[in-house]
Amino acid sequence: MKKVSINELEAGMVLAKPVMRGAMLILAEGTELTNAWVSRIEDMGVEHLFVEGAAEHAVPKEEALALLDARFKLVEDDPCMYFLKKIVKEHIEDLYG
Q1: pTM, whole model, 2 decimals?
Q2: What are φ and ψ of residue 11, in 5° steps?
Q3: Are the C-beta atoms of residues 44 and 58 closer than 8 Å to each other?
Q4: Is 79 found in the same domain as 39?
Q5: Nearest-CA neighbor of 54 among 19, 18, 16?
Q6: Residue 31 is part of which domain span?
Q7: Which of 4, 46, 52 lies closest to 22 in space, CA to CA?
Q8: CA distance 38 to 77
Q9: What pLDDT digit, counting tens, does each position of 35-56 carry?
């Protein structure tokens, strides 16, 4: 799932989360957007939507792992912190595939 600004919406994108207006459902999760829906969503003042697809990463995997190492450098000898670092590292690796 990726977060897309209204300016980036295109026909053919599939919603990963529903579009709501207050408590009212406008478009359900799984709906494929058409040009007409894109125009209507723009008119509603919605700023962003979540659509299907892989999220773009803010930093490369190598940089994310280097930042993780730097953050845990002073506490590497603590078994609990080592375990926590291992969990976060696995999560980062899963995110990047």
Answers
A1: 0.58
A2: -60, 140
A3: no
A4: no
A5: 16
A6: 2-51
A7: 46
A8: 53
A9: 999 999 888 888 889 999 877 7
Q: Over the range 21-60, which residues count as b (16 or more CB within 10 Å of their CB) and which as e?
A: eeeeeebeeeeebeeebbeebeeeebeebbbeeeeeeeee
Asked if 71 and 40 sit in the same domain, the reply is no
Are residues 45 and 9 both part of a single domain?
A: yes
Q: Is residue 27's pLDDT more than 80?
A: yes
Tally of domains within the chain: 2
User: Smallest Cα–Cα separation from 18: which of 2, 8, 29, 4?
Assistant: 29
Q: How far apart are CA 48 and CA 55, in angstroms?
A: 14
CA proximity to 18, closest of 8, 10, 66, 37: 37
Query: Which token pair is 12?
Result: 């053919």
The beta strand positions in 28-78, using DSSP E, are 48-51
Residue 27 belongs to some domain of the structure: yes
